[in-house]
Structures are given as C-alpha cells and as structure tokens.
Amino acid sequence: GGVGFTQYATAAYTDDILDNNIYYDVDYINDKYNGAATIGKDNKVKATLDVVKDIATESTLYGIETYEKFPTALEDHFGGSQRATVLAAAAGVATALATANANAGLSGWYLSMYLHKEAWGRLGFFGYDLQDQCGATNVLSYQGDEGLPDELRGPNYPNYAM
Predict the structure, then answer these.
(1) Measuring CA to CA, which of 7, 71, 106, 116 is 20 to 30 A from 130?
(2) Positive or negative, the Cα torsion across 136, 115, 160, 2?
(3) Smallest Cα–Cα separation from 107: which of 50, 41, 155, 69?
(4) Closest by alpha carbon to 63, among 77, 79, 49?
C-alpha cells in the first residue's frame, strides 16, 4: 500500500499537464517579478511568506481551473492523488524558480496541498490526506534526531512511501 508509486509515476504520467502549469507559472513570475524565473541568480525575488503565498496560490488556482476545463484529465488522474501532486509540484517548482530557495519551494508545495483540499474537499484517498498535510510544519524546522545537522535535513526526509 501507500502512495509511493503515485509520487514516483506522476511526473511521467502527467508530463504535458505539469509542463503547461509550469510554463504558465514562469510567465506569471517573469511578468510580476521582473524576470525572476529566468536563468541567473541575481534576478531572484527574496523568499518571503508573501511571495510564497502569491506564487503557489496563483499556480494552484491556474491548475485547478485548467483541470475543470478538461474533465477527462480531471477524472483520469485518479482519486485526487495525482491531481494534488501535479498542482503541488508546479507550485513548488515555480516558487523555487522565482526565489532560488528550496525551502520556499517546499512551502509552496504544501500550501498548494492545502489550497487543493479547500477547493475540492480532499487530496486523495487512504493515507494521502495525512501525508501531505503533515509536512508543512517541518519545512523550516531543525530535525536533529534525523542526523545531518549541517543540512538541517535527515536521511529519511521527506519520509514518503517511496
């Protein structure tokens, strides 16, 4: 059991939809944040809570609206698990691209999960609801019991069933 395969297979299985969402996000970021999604490191926007909320929310809402325009894709991405992962992956990638900050990207990922649940009532089935609602509290937390204190992440992160 578990959702490991869903996490593993989603990127390949939903590639065009994920790409479409990220292309939209890149255009949004470049328009609003002066090209922050283009190559380079001096053009990035500072990773603040407002920036994470703005980019992840815009990305997630665009993805939700796109799914609703194409009900076949909405139904094909079973149980909500794949939809939630596609939306969250796009939000996380977009946030990280704009800020060059991996923790901001993770925060965008988890915010997308919350927004998805608010919009559609659930993230998926079985353990998926729990799994992707418990990670946000650990994004910026020091987890010394998992080792690697210099990286502030342990070898078991993100503790998904992969």
Answers:
(1) 71
(2) positive
(3) 50
(4) 77
pLDDT tens digit sequence for 57-92:
999 999 999 999 988 887 777 666 778 888 999 999
Domains, the chain, ranges and CATH?
4-136 (1.20.840.10)
Contacts for 14 with CB less than 8 Å, ≥ 6 apart: 77, 82, 85, 86
Q: Which two tokens stand for residue 5?
A: 């395969």
Nearest C-alpha neighbor of 94 from the set 51, 150, 42: 51
Whole-angstrom Cα distance, residue 82 to residue 137? 22
Q: Model-level pTM?
A: 0.78
Residue 109 CA to residue 134 CA, distance in Å, equals 12
Q: Which of 86, 80, 61 is nearest to 126 (CA)?
A: 80
